[in-house]
Genomic scaffold, ProqFM164S03
Amino acid sequence: MLYEDVLPSTTPTYEYKGIQDSLQILDRELEDSSNPYIVFIIDERSFLDCFENSEEGLLRTSWDTYDPSSNRLVVRMQTIIHSSASGSFASIFSSWPKDDNYRLIPMTKASVRGQSGMNKQADYSWTPIQSGRLKEFPTMVVEIAWSETRTKLVEDMNFWLSQCYGEVRTALSITVHARGKITIEKWELQGATPIPSHPENGDRTKTRTKMREDPRAPPPRS
């Protein structure tokens, strides 16, 4: 299954025609569409030069997933709702107890190549410092969801939990609901399938809180 198959049906697809054309598409789609996703058909060299290692910060941080086997690049535009959810989680994370003997360092939109060759970025990721060096793979990742299907979120969690050589120990999702509520879930593998941990087992990280309200933001889908 192609990664784009789990995106909303309204997701547009474009042939990559250069950096300026891509920036114009992002500006146009962000203004005209309620769907934050775009798919570009792009070869791997162009992806590496123009997105993963781009001097354009918008292109470098907005891509979500790249599959070199199909030359499909999934880009997610940064919306007000996404930014609000990110800010809410940052506040929650800063309040959690910290272990001075196990310091987690933010990776800041670091690109990760999985076992299948697919490239992906998480919304948030952290890695511990070991012997003064950062690890290649994050230990903890967070994905923010509000407009994508549940299937898309499951695919995201499948990548982090099964494609990273067992290095990702904690995978969390933040789902934005109507009326500014968010839910935080911890995911784990059951066989080969990622699922949220069951609350009755007492091992689920689930928090409902209210985002900072922004009068410019459209109501998120529940």
